[in-house]
């Protein structure tokens, strides 16, 4: 069959023989180009089980492939390769290699939850995207993304003090992601804030950023939360078959 | 009340309902069935738990059979067909294959359907590989208590494929209709398999899922959500074997990719064909068939339960693929129409 749209085919699946004679006809070079079929030869139930065990992925088995998530998706409108419906299908059938191919697109979900409100089966596709990004990270396919680092900083502050303090959060986040602290937009934001905020509030903010106060009675809550988080993390690692610390594949 | 009986042909869910309805208002009935037992497909083919009641067929339909057999107003003839049916409204004469002659006031055809014979789709392996079975066979495995197993060696399957629309929606074999119940029955069977064999994965290959009305969440959604049955959009091209397991080939249309997947057991969700007797029945009773070969109905809005011949009525799967619930409702309606016809005939005779 002639190949009209070579661009749609992955280069590794295009096969050309330098020297090939079939039935005495010389079809060397591009005359012999053919596409390696990408046959599905087995189903693997474990991938769905793993994603379903991560927070957000619980309802993935409900998906009936209607495509409402993809059609409503903010990111898909910009990048047609961002396709939650398709990834959900790959996960459900256990097509891991295919999924991992898109590892640099999957995490780009902006958590707008448009898909969540469009999904007729309450799959919570946004949660599935989150779980999938987490899976890729835990399995060591992707390094930690800026959004994950931001989340970590955010949670770390909450765990420590029972509250967050924006200035410090941004400062830590920029430091860890090696971005300069005095971003133009941030300077502008601060300038406008200070010209408008009431005096009392500003004083409170200033005091808080100097002394990092803790929420009252936080100690107990903190211990309980720490336990819970440790428990969840251990559970995640266990379902993914990961032992010890740090990502592995 | 007329003393002339009403002839009911076929003792499945529809015929049993019509006979009971008529007898319950004092109308004598002659019930004729060619099989050696009453009950129709659910009993003759040994269905397991019915959709949507969840009752065992032998209990639910068995109860309908007893109710009719114990009714003195119903005269049951098993192993019997109708050899001739002649005359005019008010003066019908019927001769049964056992030689008996009756003069019925009206007749109701409840002659049902014939299961599609999967041998007519040889590419799907039925008749070639023992582990390719039909939904009827799985129903029998469940109802007999033997459990779902691979007929070749009796092992419990670890992976089951159910192929939908086998013998339906297929112009290649002249069957353009949807058999209506097989999606729901397949979802039900899939759940039963998952319940009995939790380690066994069940995959349903579909073109569309037609679990209509209230069957949607009860069967389609529940099978996915509670029983983790997987639905794959593909019409299978062929079923072969690698010597150990069955190999199912097709195209997964959602990822546009060929599939070659090993399975232990492949189940054909067989459709409902017109009764093989329909041409004969049409000739005997002088009624028309509709283009697919089912018994043609008079306009539903004005003559529910009617056929092309006044005085001859029809109900159930004889008219096309029907569920048991709908067959029962139609039979009740046809009984009412037949009774009105019989009494109208009496009135005409009295004038
Ligand atoms: C695998 C499978 C599973 C199903 N499961 C369900 C389910 O769970 N729930 C549901 O609602 N529906 C189910 N159905 C559909 C169900 O079988 C039909 O709705 C029902 O049997 C129709 O009843 P009936 O009385 O019209 O016809 P039938 O059940 O076919 O009864 C017809 C009767 O007429 C007799 N007969 C036929 N020809 C003649 C003749 N020439 N002379 C005398 N007697 C004759 C036959 O012996 C038979 O007893 C299933 C169908 C299939 C194929
Ligand atoms: S939450 Fe993510 S996947 Fe869902 S619509 Fe928004 S960007 Fe798309
Ligand atoms: S909207 Fe929901 S059901 Fe539809 S494809 Fe997306 S996740 Fe699946
Ligand atoms: S009910 Fe489902 S399986 Fe049966 S013919 Fe219709 S679409 Fe096919």
Brief write-up:
Chain A is mainly alpha-helical and 249 residues long. Chain A is 53% helix and 6% strand.
Q: What does this molecule look like?
A:
The complex is a heterodimer of chains A (249) and B (351). Chain A has 249 residues and is mainly alpha-helical. Chain A has three domains: 6-35, no CATH class; 47-142, Orthogonal Bundle (Fumarate Reductase Iron-sulfur Protein, Chain B, domain 2), CATH 1.10.1060.10; 144-180 and 194-210, no CATH class. Helices cover 53% and strands 6% of the residues of chain A. Chain A is built from 13 helices and four strands. Chain A has helices at 45-53, 68-72, 74-78, 84-93, 96-101, 103-106, 114-118, 125-138, 146-161, 166-176, 184-196, 199-211, 218-239, and strands at 14-17, 21-22, 25-26, 29-35. Chain A has a two-stranded antiparallel sheet with strand order 1-4. A two-stranded antiparallel ribbon of chain A has the order 2-3. In chain A, α9 (146-161) crosses α10 (166-176). The longest helix of chain A has 22 residues, at 218-239. Chain B is of the alpha/beta class. Chain B has helices at residues 13-24, 41-44, 57-69, 135-143, 182-196, 215-225, 278-285, 300-303, 324-350, and strands at residues 6-9, 29-32, 74-77, 82-88, 91-96, 101-102, 106-109, 113-115, 132-134, 159-166, 201-206, 230-233, 238-241, 246-252, 257-263, 265-270, 272-274, 312-314. The longest helix of chain B has 27 residues, at 324-350. Helices cover 29% and strands 24% of the residues of chain B. In chain B, the strands form five sheets. A five-stranded parallel sheet of chain B has the order 3-2-1-7-18, covered by helices on one side. A five-stranded parallel sheet of chain B has the order 9-16-10-11-12. Chain B contains nine helices and 18 strands. Chain A binds chain B through residues 37-43, 45, 61-62, 64-65, 86, 89-90, 92-93, 95, 98, 121, and chain B through 159, 201, 203, 221, 224-225, 228, 230-233, 252, 254-255, 257-262.
